[in-house]
Write a structure and sequence with these properties.
alpha/beta, seven-stranded mixed β-sheet, 13 helices
Length: 312
């Protein structure tokens, strides 16, 4: 499998290597804005001691990476591939971050605990998306439960289609740029309204500008990877079904988590600790949504730096 990745080394000594994984319908394009703040924080009001050497891969079937020709490229297998990538790059100690689909991969990296991985950070709580019963005793927990229920009932169409019939929607994604754009733009309510403003004369939300969004859609169109990207959801579903009834390995590494207010649901700390008892960093910020790195690259970068500061 050919894997495309961006590799940017910091000019600062002792930079901590970081592999960061994008989501869907984003891509490495959603992460371009965090490259400079993470590799050269001193230029962005931060400390040189918080610098990272950055590795930003494209997941299999996404954009410039190869398209899987066999089944089995689920988040666990991608996590193994990322560990091998970091090994081949010569990194003996590193950290990992992910949101959306990237959070699934990062979660699996934490559970596999490959040699050299020091800790992980995420901004989507994937441990809650399998239908697990979660406490709803506090006001924050009840609000999160209501938001999660809304997402699972009215904002879940793309997920269900891609998880069960990716080839069906795939015909449209490869045949029509209009179908591809429509499918990619309507991910979640918060992002939909923020992106739509950029196309109707409103003020774009951070990096969710007209040009950046069109860049992302165009990359999927020119590489013809709409269908292969959709299949990653099918792979996740197959892997989950295969592991049904089996308790996943525990994450014993340090875990950081940031709650962005525009996410599909705001995960309360109690929920995060249930999924990750080794939680060492938890923070709720005042702005940003599901595509946090794309929308608020500076704030996102500050959160990543803070989450991993004690692991340097």
């Amino acid at each position: 499998m050919d894997i495309h990745f961006i590799h940017v080394k910091s000019r600062h000594q002792n930079a901590l290597p970081l592999i960061i994984t994008h989501g869907w319908p984003g891509s490495v394009i959603e992460l371009l804005g965090v490259i400079s703040p993470l590799t050269d924080p001193a230029v962005h009001g931060g400390s040189a001691g918080d610098a990272f050497d950055l590795v930003v891969p494209s997941m299999p079937g996404y954009g410039f990476s190869g398209m899987p020709a066999e089944v089995g490229w689920d988040p666990g297998r991608i996590a193994h591939a990322w560990a091998e990538l970091m090994r081949r790059l010569g990194y003996t100690r590193y950290v990992a971050q992910g949101g959306d689909q990237g959070a699934w991969v990062t979660d699996q990296m934490g559970r596999q605990a490959p040699e050299g991985l020091l800790g992980i950070h995420m901004n989507l709580l994937v441990t809650t998306l399998g239908g697990a019963m979660l406490p709803a005793e506090t006001e924050q927990e009840r609000a999160a439960a209501d938001a999660r229920n809304t997402f699972m009932t009215s904002g879940f169409g793309y997920f269900l289609e891609q998880a069960t019939r990716p080839q069906t929607i795939g015909y449209a994604l490869l045949d029509s740029p209009l179908a591809l754009a429509a499918w990619m733009l309507d991910h979640d309510t918060d992002a939909y309204y923020k992106i739509s403003r950029a196309f109707t004369g409103g003020q774009p939300s951070g990096g969710l500008t007209r040009d950046h969004v069109l860049d992302n859609i165009t990359m999927y169109w020119l590489t013809g990877t709409g269908t292969s990207a959709a299949r990653s959801y099918w792979e996740y579903t197959q892997a989950t079904a295969h592991a049904a009834g089996q308790a996943p390995p525990e994450v014993k590494l340090p875990v950081g988590f940031t709650v962005f207010p525009g996410e599909s649901f705001r995960a309360p700390r109690s929920w995060v600790e249930l999924g990750y008892p080794t939680l060492t960093y938890f923070h709720e910020v005042s702005k940003g949504g599901h595509f946090a790195a794309w929308e608020e690259p500076q704030l996102f970068s500050e959160e990543v730096r803070a989450a991993f500061r004690t692991l340097r």
